[in-house]
Design a protein that fits this description.
Serine Threonine Protein Phosphatase 5, Tetratricopeptide repeat, 3 domains, two-stranded antiparallel ribbon, 40% helix
Length: 527
């Protein structure tokens, strides 16, 4: 892709409608009367507050590239799961996906280019909003709305750059709308440190933008921003920047701000009592869901369908082919005995279901991911399936905040009571007994938190980034942590080890052809 952003013709107009449908009304009937939408251009579009609202809605809508297709039996999100070793596939038709599982992906792998293009579309939309919204005249009484919209644009840009810098390291840092006449149209790569600097600045601006403390409408909230700041600081403390103690302190402080808010507002923010509530579409954007990508079948249906068993009749549609991301037996068996997350249809997995969604129970023959199974839409005992899967995709859960806080505190050298309580809350919900705080050293507590992260956030696009920032990987046989380089994923990848080069993904070959300034390729991959 190039970095240009022309708000022309029907495609952008569709983005506006998609975003507006999912994020609520923006008085777009007035906007529709302004001019022929097929002739929208930046200079004529950004003239009234409704235009600003619609542009931010369009930027939110662009996040849904996360679930877009990546060839037969595959979607973009699988790029973050296949290399982790926690999943395998029951299908073999998608060579790009197979190469991700086998750790032999390269710059021709379709998922990689899809991620690059998707992230830079979000960045392009956000950049345009950040440049144009200040010039729009808002009524004096609505000045706070303007500040909020600018904050949302900066949050969304930070969201995209945070993915990009973790995936590729040095990436082009584009902060202005681009056209073919722009001096830096063929942008060069920027050192990671500078990319992180912008991410932090954008998140700090968003934190001060007057967001609601917590939102149930799908828009980012102040607590979500604080949670992202905690994650960015925690990532900067680890590899490759290795900021260490200063940033573990910042991560702990930001996470604690969210935890303190949850304690003061337990009916608004906190852990769900049951795991099933996490995939109840009536509870989207509530309680544990700090930030989600919004889905609705009117615009785009829930995209994580490749977790279904392959050709097994677990939904109203009968046997249907999916099964391109399924748990490895070794990972499933690495959970502690009695962990509720492994209990059939109660936690993250299921080993039985009901024929065609509502019939007789039958054995699946293996564990499959239940974490995203929408019973209301797909069927269950006594339930007539709606066939409309409107679940959202999680990006930040409150449980992540608890474990980030516990980990950062351990890295600071002590097992504090608040850190222990945060860690224990995750295990309490899983019905696990937690050793007394005094039995842990800072080092053993840290590893216990890491292990809990592996088991809590499986199949949420988080594990890969934990592997990279820690340069550690959970060993399912020893229940300890191996160094990243040299670790072998059990039952996946044909026994190939993780290599130094796998700490970053390669840049897409076509991207480097389009823009020679992106060279050199990341180490270990062909140009």
């Amino acid at each position: 892709m190039t970095f240009s952003m022309k708000l022309n013709n029907k495609k952008f107009y569709q983005f506006l409608l998609c975003g507006a449908i999912l994020l609520g009304p923006t008085a777009c009937s007035d906007f529709l009367d302004e001019q022929d939408p097929s002739n929208l251009q930046p200079d004529t579009f950004y003239t009234i507050p409704d235009h600003a609202e619609a542009a931010i809605a369009a930027t939110y809508a662009e996040m849904r590239f996360f679930g877009d297709g990546a060839g037969i039996f595959s979607a973009n999100w699988q790029m973050l799961e296949a290399p982790t070793g926690t999943a395998t596939t029951e299908t073999g038709q998608n060579s790009d996906l197979n190469n991700l599982y086998a750790l032999i992906y390269d710059g021709n792998t379709g998922h990689i280019s899809n991620w690059w293009n998707g992230l830079y579309r979000v960045i392009a939309n956000a950049n345009l909003a950040i440049e144009k919204i200040p010039g729009i005249q808002f009524p004096a009484a609505n000045e706070a709305q303007k500040v909020r919209l600018m904050g949302e644009a900066r949050f969304l840009r930070a969201w995209a750059y945070f993915y990009a810098v973790r995936l590729w390291g040095d990436v082009p840092l584009v902060t202005k709308p681009q056209t073919t006449e722009s001096e830096d149209f063929f942008a060069s790569r920027t050192p990671q440190e500078e990319v992180y600097k912008l991410i932090v600045e954008d998140l700090q601006a968003a934190e001060a933008a007057g967001f609601a403390d917590f939102n149930t409408n799908g828009r980012v909230s102040k607590m979500a921003v604080k949670a992202y700041l905690a994650k960015v600081y925690l990532t900067m403390a680890g590899f490759p920047l290795s900021k260490g103690q200063s940033h573990y302190t910042l991560a702990a402080e930001k996470a604690l701000e969210v935890i303190n808010y949850a304690k003061a507002n337990p009916s608004t923010l906190g852990l769900f009592n049951t795991y099933k509530e996490l995939h109840d579409e009536k509870l989207k954007n509530r309680m544990e869901h700090l930030f989600q990508i919004q889905y609705n079948t009117v615009v785009a249906g829930f995209p994580l369908n490749d977790f279904f068993p392959n050709f097994k009749a677990v939904t109203y549609s009968g046997p249907s082919g999916t099964g391109s991301t399924v748990p490895t037996k070794s990972f499933y068996e690495s959970y502690e005995t009695g962990d509720l997350r492994t209990k059939d249809q109660e936690g993250w997995f299921y080993t039985t279901y009901f024929t065609n969604g509502t019939g007789d129970r039958f054995e699946l023959g293996a564990p499959y991911v239940f974490k995203y199974f929408n019973i209301a839409a797909l069927g269950g005992p006594g339930i007539t399936p709606t066939r409309l899967n409107n679940l959202n995709v999680n990006q930040m859960r409150y449980s992540d905040v608890l474990l980030m806080f516990a980990e950062a505190q351990a890295e600071l050298g002590s097992v504090t009571t608040p850190a222990y309580e945060a860690f224990k809350a995750i295990r309490d919900r899983a019905k696990l007994t937690t050793p007394a705080a005094g039995t842990y050293t800072a080092a053993s507590f840290k590893e216990a938190v890491w292990k809990e992260r592996w088991h809590e956030f499986a199949y949420e696009g988080i594990t890969w980034f934990d592997m990279v920032r820690l340069r550690k990987v959970f060993n399912e046989e020893t229940k300890k942590f191996d160094n990243f380089v040299g670790h072998r994923n059990l039952n996946v990848s044909g026994g190939a080890p993780l290599l130094e080069k796998h700490l970053l993904f390669p840049l897409g070959i076509q991207e480097m052809r389009n823009n020679p300034n992106l060279k050199p390729q990341n180490p270990g991959y062909q140009q």
